[in-house]
Write a structure and sequence with these properties.
17 strands; alpha/beta; seven-stranded mixed beta sheet; five-stranded parallel beta sheet; 322 residues
């Protein structure tokens, strides 16, 4: 069995960036991805517009050309696919990593298909796979979805959208414009401060005019086949309902990190231990890259501010300055 210099877990933008950096440094590597290429981006809403401009989404110094300054999901998928294929990156798709075990100075990595050996591990797994659950009655019903893809599905339906940040706002506006009767349920006093600046006035005006109903300082307490119960400042109300979009955020796979031996803080943030100068964790030779570094603070790291993680890691592995 060959021993790779690096095994990268995750073929999202930052995992691909790590592969490019390893390849440029002449290191042997393999990227193992549980789903399709850039699996998280693939599962974003069909025509989502990025907050970042295209040049800030570039990796490996390869230009990203988009029609508008801020690219949409199909453009990003095309860019990262072309970068991966044109550079002949060694990617193994639909091959989830099941365990990482240390054997002396080598790590044995088991996937659902085979076993690899590597001197170093880079975990670039993102945070989009595990939704933050509501833990309320009825959350298991088929009408409840923690992911939003396409507004057409919800045409002429009564839809409750839970949340007040970008994904919730996009879903509320898009389904409303496809003819859905939309109600937002928001814990806070208003729309989230991080909502895209060109979208925020739109959603606030739709709420103000009554096109989209919104209950602030409120929570969904129970979901049934044709109704939802909402706790509001004015008491409990029950609404007729066809679908619930519980877009309450997502979290990294903390269980996987802990099984690998990475220390997490014991507070609610669950920050993983790593050196910000090298990205190496408390496990020698295991590094973190991208959004996974932020624990439950999933809004801290993005593609644009974590692209340099790849260079930091490769510089530390090779002992050469960036």
């Amino acid at each position: 069995m060959d021993t790779y210099d690096i095994l990268i877990v995750g073929a999202g933008p930052i995992g691909i960036a790590c592969g490019l950096a390893a390849q440029k440094a002449g290191l042997s590597y393999v990227i193992a991805e549980k789903g399709c290429l850039t699996n998280s981006l693939y599962n974003y809403p069909l025509y989502m517009t990025f907050f970042s401009t295209s040049e800030k989404l570039e990796i490996g110094g390869i230009p990203f050309v988009s029609i508008s300054a801020k690219p949409i999901r199909p453009e990003a998928l095309e860019y990262y696919r072309r970068v991966t294929i044109s550079n002949h990156l060694n990617v193994r798709l639909f091959e989830p990593v099941e365990g990482i075990k240390q054997e002396g100075e080598i790590y044995q990595v088991t996937t659902d298909k085979t076993t690899y050996k590597a001197r170093h591990i880079i975990i670039a797994t993102g945070f989009y796979d595990i939704p933050n659950m509501l833990h309320i009655p009825g959350e298991h019903l088929a009408k409840v979805n923690h992911y939003y893809k396409d507004p057409h599905f919800y045409a002429a339906q009564k839809v409750v959208v839970i949340g007040a940040n970008n994904s919730s706002v996009d879903a509320a506006l898009e389904t409303y414009r496809k003819g859905a009767d939309v109600t937002m349920v928001i814990r806070e006093e208003g729309i989230g401060k991080r909502v895209k600046y060109w979208v925020k006035p739109d959603i606030e005006n739709r709420i103000k005019e009554g096109s989209i109903k919104a209950y602030f300082h409120s929570n969904v307490k129970a979901i049934r086949e044709n109704e939802v119960d909402i706790s509001t400042p004015d008491g409990m109300i029950t609404l007729k309902n066809d679908f619930v979009l519980a877009l309450t955020g997502y979290q990294p796979n903390f269980n996987f990190l802990e099984k690998t031996g990475i220390t997490l803080t014991r507070d609610a943030k669950k920050y993983p231990a790593y050196n910000p100068d090298t990205m190496e964790t408390n496990m020698p030779g295991i590094y973190l890259a991208g959004v996974v570094c932020g624990g439950m603070d999933t809004h801290v790291w993005f593609i644009e501010n974590s692209r340099d993680h790849a260079d930091k890691i490769i510089a530390h592995i090779t002992g050469k300055p960036r």
